[in-house]
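We emphasize that the prediction below concerns an isolated chain of 350 residues; any contacts that depend on oligomerization or on bound cofactors are therefore not represented. The input was used exactly as deposited, without trimming of termini.
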Amino acid sequence: MKKIIIMLLMVLPLVAGAQTKIKETAVPRSVLLALEKTYDSYKVRTWYQAPGQYIAELVIDGQNGRSYFTAGGDWQYSTFPVKAEECPTLMNTYFVNNYPGYRIKNIEYVEEMNGDNYYRMIIIKKGIAESDCEMIFDTRGKLMKSNAPDPDAVKRDYYTHNNPDASEKKITEETGTEKSRHRNRPAPKVDEPQVEQFTPSDEIEAHFKKAMGKRVSAGPEWVMRNGEYAVAYFSNAQKVKMEAVYQLSNNQPIMNGKTLAKDRYNSTILKYIAEKFSGEKYKIEKMVQYEFNSKYRDPIDGKKPKPYTYVVISQKVKGSRELKYTRMEFDSRNAFIGLIAQPLDEKDVQ
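Result of the prediction step, given as a token string:
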């Protein structure tokens, strides 16, 4: 199994860049027969040829996928794109707890000829020109193989980056002065991040002015989000807090966010939160509805993404004035998507 997985990890990226679209009449009969033996019911959309391989882009039980065959007619494996919410909880929890500052690029469910099935998750560190990393999980969500950085190093680097005072604390602990300073240190502050000054490109500012015009009553205040986006925080003419998000790589608008008033909170989401936090004290810091620009298309499937809702929940840490935060996302049907490990940017609730 391990040898097969290693071979697959090496082959998949190469195949993606060397495919030629062909007609079914150009596919060897041995490959067509192999497909018939592999799946009882299917519909082929397109055939591709790669060095030593034939690839069928197909639909099985209403799910899009790809099947890979050798030139000699042997089925190798099939891949099916899946969403994070469709994956085992253990798998999603592992990613959220171990890779802050990273995002999921895509997930595939893989079926192999020997009956071994597993999930292949591609993650990437948020920022410009970062490399893909991949992790293999079994069907229960247990990590089997990964070429991603060591989780402890990732969390340590993320903590150091977001807690610059930690090094100073370490020094005082080593010199034995931390105890004496403890009595005089200020009480923990709640949600008062230091926002770095950021100036977007002229093209992004032009997009913002064209879209918003005179409908701005306060702002905008610009921040960079994850090294990939420029975000304008502002209030519209109705004093509603808004966000406008732009792609830094091409200066194009992606989506707008609207912070909901408490009396406009979605009842389905409120019910879900109440059930998950039953018996606990909590406060909804904000609920933001994001809607994508009419011209924006997902770079993976080419479709316009559906709206979603972002929620930040705070809870008091027992025995302290500090707050801990839970960040959640819900889809267009108000169903829970998953957790977010860190603030979106410096303006987000810390």
